[in-house]
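In response to the reviewer comment on reproducibility (Comment 2.3), we provide here a single inverse folding case reported in full, input and output, so that an independent group could reproduce the run without further information from us. The structure tokens appear first.
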């Protein structure tokens, strides 16, 4: 019976690397983010002189190079949901909990393995996206050594990893891949984007995990005439971390109190 932490970690690593869907979602997160960001950077370089003066004044080449994360984060959401949800959809959860009766060890070992993997992919995506985007921006590019740029690039990787972990917590609470994806995908792709543009509602939307967390990737305050926020880059990341902690606590309580 696998009950020691190293054994549980090893078993969770085996589960993740032998399931092709989780591997492909991570590859998709990388490819989609890099490709979309590169395309938008090339387009911006070609049309920069046509931008209104206020947008040129707040132009943030670093933040622009992460614009593909709007779609790339959805692949991270799918990865986080599948890591947990496949346990329930396949019935594997009963075998897993029989092998590891300590539910906290089971859950947080899974979160640790998948979270580190998502973080590594997120950092690789962030650095590749940044350097490729800057190369395509031509004379409008910035440098990794410029003020706050390295913080933004590391922040991009942290953001993607934390979004995946947040999704794992939500999926643990809901115990269903379909239900979790049915809530998280529209939320990140539509609801958050729409509410952030609605007067009145945007004061609440700025505290959503994606809106707050993405602040860490900005170097220029209020980049591209975006709405000002009552927190800075690290404050925004702190709000995202609070969402992640809340989701993990909720997932742990559900797993502890309910039968498999």
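Designed residues, in position order:
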């Amino acid at each position: 019976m696998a009950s020691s932490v190293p054994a549980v970690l090893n078993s969770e690593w085996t589960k993740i690397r032998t399931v092709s869907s989780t591997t492909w979602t991570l590859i998709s997160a990388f490819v989609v983010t890099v490709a979309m960001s590169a395309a938008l950077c090339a387009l911006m370089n070609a049309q920069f002189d046509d931008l209104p003066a206020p947008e040129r004044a707040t132009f943030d080449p670093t933040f622009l190079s992460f614009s593909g994360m709007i779609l790339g984060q959805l692949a991270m959401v799918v990865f986080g949901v599948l890591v947990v949800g496949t346990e329930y959809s396949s019935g594997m959860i009963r075998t897993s909990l029989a092998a590891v009766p300590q539910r906290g060890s089971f859950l947080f070992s899974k979160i640790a393995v998948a979270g580190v993997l998502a973080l590594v992919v997120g950092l690789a995506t962030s650095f590749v996206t940044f350097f490729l985007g800057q190369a395509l921006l031509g004379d409008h590019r910035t440098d990794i050594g410029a003020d706050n740029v390295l913080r933004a690039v590391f922040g991009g990787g942290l953001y993607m990893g934390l979004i995946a972990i947040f999704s794992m917590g939500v999926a643990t609470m809901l115990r269903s891949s379909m239900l979790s994806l049915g809530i998280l995908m529209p939320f990140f792709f539509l609801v958050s984007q729409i509410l952030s543009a609605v007067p009145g509602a945007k004061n609440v939307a700025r505290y959503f995990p994606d809106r707050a967390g993405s602040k860490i990737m900005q170097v220029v305050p209020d980049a591209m005439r975006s709405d000002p926020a009552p927190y800075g880059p690290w404050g925004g990341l702190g709000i995202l971390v609070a969402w992640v902690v809340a989701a993990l606590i909720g997932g742990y309580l559900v797993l502890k109190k309910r039968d498999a």
